[in-house]
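Anyone? Bumping this.
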Amino acid sequence: MNVFSIQTFFQLMNTRQDLLITALWEHIQMSLISLLIAVFIAVPLGILLSHYRKGAEPVIGATAVLQTIPSLALLGFLIPFLGIGTTPAIVALTAYALMPILRNTYTGLKEVDPALMEASRGMGMGTIQQLHKIQLPLAMPMIMAGIRTGMVLIVGTATLAALIGAGGLGDLIMLGINRSNNYYILLGAIPAAILALLIDTVLRLTEKKAKGSSLMPILVVIGAALLLVITPPVLNTVSSFGEEEKEEIVIAGKLGAEPEIIINMYKLLIEQETDYEVVLEPGIGTTDVAFQALISGDLDGYFEFTGTAIADLLGEEVVSNDEREAYEQAKEGMYDEFNLVFLEPLGYQNTYALAVTEEMASDLNLETIGDLQSYEEDLSAAFTVEFADRPDGYPGIQEVYGIEFSNVQTMDPGLRLGALVSGDAEVIDAYSTDSYMREYDLVALEDDENLFPPFNGAPLFREEAILAYPELEDILNQLEGMITEEEMQEMNFQVDENDANANDIAREYLEEEGLIQE
Amino acid sequence: MIEFKNVSKDFPDGTKAVKNVSFKVNEGEMFVIIGPSGCGKTTTMKMINRLIDSSEGKILIENKNILDMNIKKLRWNIGYVLQQIALFPHMTIEENISIVPELKKWSKEETHKRVNELLNMVGLDPDTYRDRIPSELSGGQQQRIGVVRALAGNPDIILMDEPFSALDPISREQLQGDIVKLQKEIKKTIVFVTHDMDEALALGNRICVMKDGGVVQIDDPATLLRNPTDEFVREFLGDRKDPWSELVSELFPLTEKEIPPAYDASSSLSASATVKEALDKLKKVDDDSIAIFENNDYRGHLSYRDITLYLEKNRVKTKGGARS
């Protein structure tokens, strides 16, 4: 990747201003709402526990357990109950901030000098008066420290909420990781850091102002934060959430340019031929997140590959390496098992591939995966976590081709490309249509043993959605067999590398093919 | 005024802190409870403002059982001074003093006036100290505020729990002097807990000696000094002979009566007599003071109190921080 240039960064900031402002606003709202809820739960709970000290350690321990759950796991865990979007994100973020606020509130109150408590009791103060006049003001620095810790956790973790469709600055960071574009990563990360510092400053100043016996400034800040989060943008999202239940069709795509382009095609086609409104949720984190959201009814459909459906969702082996037979297997399995309808697949295949640089391919005379065996001792590989784990991924390569690389690292899809370019790894897993294959002159080695199952992309919908909107089937099946591997690669390239809008690219393609009118 | 009737206190862990204690504290009196640690003196005092509730017996204030009173109102009318001073560190001096008046819903002007009056009373300039916070004051100043805070709501009773024991000797002596003066001016009923016999002798109108949760002896300082009931009290009073052999002239200046009495061998004493001799003389005369003459000149009257105050001062100088 190129040398970092400040100029390019500011250019990007300028051109993606709208995206940045929306993401920043979503981030602020999500963070503040979570922080407020966490404060409203943890502070009163801390006060309660300071009166019933026996219960304190178990309760605080429970919040500490919440803290140890990896954030992505917690987000994923909530999907069956709360679906995707802002709600589960806020719940998870709130859970993260509970422990520091609760522990500090409890400790702060507990550590008020017992002599002061006795003095105030002896002077005839009631419990509430003691709390308000003595304990809370004295514990305030501790409580505020807890709130500030919680706030930093929230602002940081909120970047992951992008993976479950909650938006925020994480959208930009994921985009950057997915495209291996550091500028996008920074465009998300820098405002997140500034935001954390900014809120921290506001909290610190509030605390300073509140020195002494008055709790007023704290109430003022809470009030201001409340006002900020219930301003019109929230009302908009809230009202659009409400309408979702009616005539809106919600379609998601997993992280990346390709699913986003395809689901934009779905939207354009559906909206041209019906009055339904299609809401898109691009950039949903992983297969698991998208699938859980579909099962829970939060989504009506998303763009899925046949190979993924068979191996990951059904846990079966692919019966045949023939595209059609694999599709039939996926379609039947998904319907029998989950009542999900797989509509007709697109023309191209985005299958797994093992990729190496063109230079190395010619140096070592590599053409097929099998050719790697002679070099297994000398090569290190960088795989996605998914590829390293799935039976038709690296375990399959070990079994079918008998190849054991000397060193295998697992990392994020965007990062493994970086590892290849920087020379930290020689072999990566890749998707055959990904734009970087073209960008970095990579060669996909031939799968001569037919290990990788066919990966045809197709719309996966809930049966109820298809029954409710029967037109969908015909509309979306218009895309059956359309789009070649080269066309897809080109479109991905436009979005990933040229920063084109996925909707524009989708529209161009459909217009060229005469599927929609200009 | 305050009456304990067969009061006992058993703590949940089985400790019998106070055993069947009965006594009366008179209105306007400085009642000192003294005893070694663990004798139940603090527990006894805290039962008065119900920081600890008695297990058996009755405590009456103005003939009313304190359990029948509103607990907040009871506490608003009992000032409380703690050993740890316990000024609220986040409040200014004025805010600290104003707490009980505010709880009693006094008007702002009234409270403000009261704060000024009290600060003047203990020799702290209101304009200088009103807006300071406790940590900006010396230990002695802090406890002055502690005392003033207890007085703020104009209570009839003040409880003092070893209020001066955390102070340095010089501040302690000053505050002891202040509290004696204050007591004369404001005529409050004060229950004062200490483990320091010199302090008890210097301050108390009456001294209540406690041991193992029971009362051993209640008497005024002079009687206590003359007639300790048992070996325990005698030992607790300790060895005070050395300062007692000092000459009476060491105690000058004395309070002079307006009309100088004529020398009378039965009720007068030479300034060259020892303190011990002066005390013996006091025991014999039918008065609480005797006239002192030096070379046939009247120099004033010597009282028990003069002697005890002198003993207290003397102890500090000669024995440092040693405790009886």
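Late reply, but here is one note on the structure posted above: Confidence is low (pLDDT under 50) at residues 316-324 of chain B.
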